[in-house]
Amino acid sequence: MDKEDWQKKGIGHRSRLRERFLARGLAGFTDCEVLELLLTFGTPRSDCKEPARALLARFGSFAKVLEAPVKALQEVNGVGPKNSFALHFIRAVASHYLKERLTGKRYLHSPQEVVDYLLHSMRGLKKEILTVIYLDAAHAILAVETVAEGTLNVNTVYPREILAKALEHHAAALILAHNHPSGALEASSQDIKLTRIMYLLCNSMQIQLLDHLVIGDGAFSFADQGVMDTIRKDCSTLLASFA
């Protein structure tokens, strides 16, 4: 098969994949086929099947491919600057979409959408970040903002800035979320200490701290696991001692 015939075959294959997607969405698509289509956004005239297979073999999963640094992507044969840009752009667009669709929704009715966004935006990051979700009195989501980056502890997170933002948004409640680059889901002593401090400060401003989510290889909720209840009791006892 000469080069011209090979290109025609590749174009026909991509057209069939696009038609399948338009007809049925991603139902029935393999991870390799999804990656193949994404890669064609960067190099529409290239055969992207083998690079898609090589990416999955190198990184192990579809999610890990999207989370991979540009430099690492380009180390895979057949993946160049345009392909790697397309993959990173698609991931950024997906994160933007997931964030935007949260605004105005009531948290109690859409906790999974919140987790979906946090997993997409925070899992796989090489450094820790702290995100705050600001809610109104009905627990509708007002805003989602990253407020700190780097090693997160009580010395690097500035609660006054979080509270200032809460007042700026006229928030009545908050949800904290941070990631563990290691993927671990266990809450550390520093995580609990930070949550306790934030609970006390929020309480002094009549703002509810509803939850603290740890994002790793999944999501760990302080509220669901009973940690928030323990913190509330501890803080109530402490506050009562000053009454």
Any overview of this molecule?
The protein has helices spanning 3-24, 31-42, 49-59, 62-67, 70-73, 81-100, 111-122, 159-168, 189-204, 227-241; strands spanning 129-135, 141-149, 173-179, 208-216, 218-221. By secondary structure, it is an alpha+beta fold. The chain has 2 domains: 3-97, Orthogonal Bundle (DNA polymerase, domain 1), CATH 1.10.150; 105-241, Cytidine Deaminase, domain 2, CATH 3.40.140.10. The chain has a 5-stranded mixed sheet, sandwiched between helices. The N and C termini lie far apart (86 Å).
Short description:
It is built from 10 helices and 5 strands. The protein is of the alpha+beta class.
Summarize the helices and strands and which ones pair or pack.
Elements: H1 3-24, H2 31-42, H3 49-59, H4 62-67, H5 70-73, H6 81-100, H7 111-122, E1 129-135, E2 141-149, H8 159-168, E3 173-179, H9 189-204, E4 208-216, E5 218-221, H10 227-241
Parallel strand pairs: 3-4
Antiparallel strand pairs: 1-2, 1-3, 4-5
Helix pairs in contact: 2-3, 2-6, 6-7, 9-10
